[in-house]
Specification:
The protein is α/β, with parallel strands linked by helices. Helices cover 43% and strands 16% of the residues. The structure holds 2-acetamido-2-deoxy-beta-D-glucopyranose (2 copies). Belongs to the 'GDXG' lipolytic enzyme family.
Length: 404
């Protein structure tokens, strides 16, 4: 009867409202839009979980379907010629400016985000970001489609982006594209920022590479696996669009699908006591400013079994966790741009890296966006367009324009 139907309707509405509702920090612009975007991501995540539980496909492969839905083929426009090709047998999307140039051009080698598991250079949002970078800076942009987990594990992702960068930095290749060898940078967001930081570090030690990077730009990067309970992980456990549980999944999937690593990382007991010396490099008690420590109390690390680190040594490897580099290893790094967002589990990774680089004399520009969440720069077009996305993107391109 009518009453039962109304009750039903009421219950369903309440459930939907509960599901859509995410507490949005007060200083966010366009809170409703952010809430809907978050609900969209949460829905996809839940559906992927269901597909995984039913044995239909791996969780990450299901998440990858969004990437496919967001894909656009390489399309040239009046300013930029866009092609899909390969450098050193790795797929790339190449953006070549069409405007004439007085002299040699600048270049950006870009690594997209997506937790080493999802994403691709041809997603609309990344295509926009790299196309605008190319067009506005009159620069060559190489956007790398490195291979992804779960099919490929660490260090494949790193090796792919490294070999593309190394290939591009050869003087014969730079001159073929009219690029100034003194004005090349690496850049990336999230997992791509992780890869950019790792590439910049490894290039310092590679005697085969003669061309030095001018700069690195790290956009809300993931930089360490050691402490997954930093104040930023605690403060932002359920913020849009990267909850802690998903970040832990991304980290563990980078190395293995073995759930014992994920479980150990979830409880932050994955590092063996033999590696205790590494905690000095992620010690937020020393490395975070007071305003981010707030009322968090530093506790000594909890250690796990050595078996995990023996089986999956990647999570303690510098190429996966660039924040674990010693000061001596950081010293030679190029001019650095770091963007961090207040409402991001990865906030403290970026803040600590910027601080450590500065302390050893690397010139750093650190922008901290107080009203932004992880991945905000992806939302620059279509129904999910956000003012904060444009603001962060413009600022990044402006920095490159002034410093590259
Ligand atoms: C090409 O560049 C001009 C000038 O910078 C800009 O106004 C225009 O929007 C660009 N076109 C595209 C398709 O991005
Ligand atoms: C972290 O820093 C604090 C404060 O300086 C210090 O007491 C603590 O021993 C350090 N912990 C580690 C693991 O380095």
């Amino acid at each position: 009867d009518m009453g039962a139907k109304l009750l039903c309707l009421f219950l369903v509405s309440a459930l939907v409202a509960y599901y859509v509702y995410t507490p949005i920090p007060e200083d966010f612009e366009e809170p409703w839009k952010v809430m809907l975007i978050t609900a969209g991501f949460r829905t996809v995540s839940h559906l992927s979980e269901v597909a995984d539980q039913l044995g239909l496909m791996h969780y990450m492969e299901a998440l990858m379907l969004i990437t496919a839905a967001e894909y656009i083929a390489p399309t040239s426009d009046e300013n930029v010629t866009v092609t899909d090709t390969e450098f050193s047998n790795v797929a790339i999307r190449l953006y070549l400016p069409r405007k004439p140039s007085d002299g040699l051009r600048r270049a950006v080698v870009y690594f997209h985000g997506g937790g080493w598991c999802v994403g691709q250079a041809g997603m609309k949002s990344y295509d926009r970001l790299t196309r605008w970078t190319s067009s506005r800076l009159n620069a060559v942009v190489v956007s790398v489609n490195y291979r992804l987990a779960p099919k490929y594990r660490f260090p494949v992702q790193f090796e792919d982006v490294y070999s593309v960068t190394k290939f591009f930095l050869q003087s014969s290749v730079l001159s073929q594209y009219g690029v100034d060898p003194d004005r090349v940078c690496v850049a990336g967001d999230s997992a791509g920022g992780n890869l950019a930081a790792a590439v910049a570090q490894q290039l310092l030690e590679d005697s085969e590479v003669k061309t030095k990077l001018k700069a690195q730009a790290l956009l809300y990067p993931a930089l360490q696996t050691l402490d997954l309970n930093l104040p930023s992980y605690q403060d932002n456990e359920n913020k849009p669009i990267l909850p802690k549980s998903l970040m832990v999944k991304f980290w563990s999937e980078y190395f293995t699908s073995d759930s014992s690593l994920r479980e150990a990382m979830t409880s932050n007991r994955h590092v063996p006591v033999e590696s205790s010396h590494l905690f000095q490099f992620v010690n937020w008690s020393n490395l975070l400013p007071e305003e981010l420590k707030k009322d968090h109390v530093y506790t000594s690390p909890a250690y796990g079994s050595s078996e995990l680190a023996q089986k999956y040594p990647g999570f303690l490897d510098l190429r996966a966790a660039p924040l674990l580099a010693s000061d001596a290893q950081l010293r030679g790094l190029p001019l650095t741009y770091v963007l961090t967002c207040e409402h991001d589990v990865l906030r403290d990774d970026g803040v600590m890296y910027a601080g450590r680089l500065r302390a050893v004399g690397v010139p750093v520009t650190h922008d901290h966006a107080k009203d932004a969440f992880h991945g905000a720069m992806m939302f620059v077009s279509g129904p999910t367009e956000l003012a904060v996305g444009h603001r962060l993107l413009n600022r990044y391109i402006e920095w490159l324009n002034e410093n590259l």
